[in-house]
Amino acid sequence: MTKQTKEILELLDAHYGTDYRCYLNHENAWQLLFATILSAQCTDIRVNIVTKDLFVKYPTVEAFADAKLSEMEQDIHSTGFYHNKAKNIIACAGELLTKYHGEVPSKMEQLIALPGVGRKTANVIRGNIFQEPSIVVDTHVKRISKKLGLTQEDDPEKVEFELMKVLPKDHWILYNIQIISLGRLICKAPTPRCGECFLQKQCKYFQSRNGL
Questions:
Q1: CA-wise closest residue to 165 among 138, 144, 145, 187
Q2: Of all residues in the chain, what percent are helix, strand and coil, respectively (each to 5)?
Q3: Are 54 and 35 in contact (CB under 8 A)?
Q4: In CATH, what number does 29-128 get?
Q5: How does DSSP classify residue 80?
Q6: Which residues are catalytic?
Q7: pTM attached to this predicted model
Q8: pLDDT tens for residues 145-182?
Q9: Do 29-128 and 3-19+136-207 fall under one CATH topology?
C-alpha cells in the first residue's frame, strides 16, 4: 500500500468512522438483493420509499415470483427503467426458488447468473449479507477513485479489480461506505466542493487543477 493510499484511508476513517452500514433498507438477503436491483440509476432514498410498501405487498420470494409484470411495473415505476427491473426481479425470484430453495446464494458466479444481477449487486450482497470482502463500484466510487488517482479505468469491473490491488481487504467494504458519504456531502457531481475537502493533499484532481 502506498503512502498516499494509506493517508486516504486514515483520513476517511477519521471523518466517517469505521462502522459498516447499508443505505438500502432491508430485513433479509432477498430484500437487499431486490432493493439493489432497483437502485440502478436511482437514489437509495427513492428505493427505500418504494420498498417500504413493496415488501409489505410482496412479503416473500414466492410473492415476488408470482407477481404480475404490469402490476410490478406500476409498483416500482418511480425508480426508473421499471420494465426491465420488474421483469428481472420476478425472474430472479423464480430462480431463487427453483435453484436455491428461496435462499440467496453467496458465490459470485451464482449471483451474477441471476437475472438483473451484475458484479456491483453481487458485491453488495457478498459484503453486507455474507461479510465477504467485496468492493462495490457505484458511480461515487468510480468517479472519486479516479480523481484520487487510485484508478485510471472507466469500466466498473476494471475499477473493481484495480482497487482490489491497491486497497487492503479490511477496507474493501468500508471504502464504498465512506466514499458514498464523501460523494454525497463534498465530492459531488458535477461540481465538487474541493475547498471543503479533507483529501486535497492526496487528490490528484485537486493537485492538477490547482497546479500543485
A1: 145
A2: 65, 0, 35
A3: no
A4: 1.10.340.30
A5: S
A6: 120, 138
A7: 0.91
A8: 999 999 999 999 999 999 999 999 999 999 999 999 99
A9: no
What is 3-19+136-207's CATH number? 1.10.1670.10
Q: Which residue in this structure is represented by grid cell 490547482?
A: 210
The full length of the chain comes to 212
Spatial CB neighbours of 26, under 8 Å, sequence gap ≥ 6: 32, 35, 51
Domain residue extents for the chain: 3-19+136-207, 29-128
Cα 124 to Cα 116, 141, 204, distances in angstroms: 14, 13, 28
> What whole-number distance in Å separates Cα of residue 177 and Cα of residue 171?
10
Distance CA 112, CA 119 (A): 6
What pLDDT, on the 0 to 100 scale, is given for residue 212? 66
Reported as a single tens digit per residue, the pLDDT across 107-132 is 999 999 999 999 999 999 999 999 99
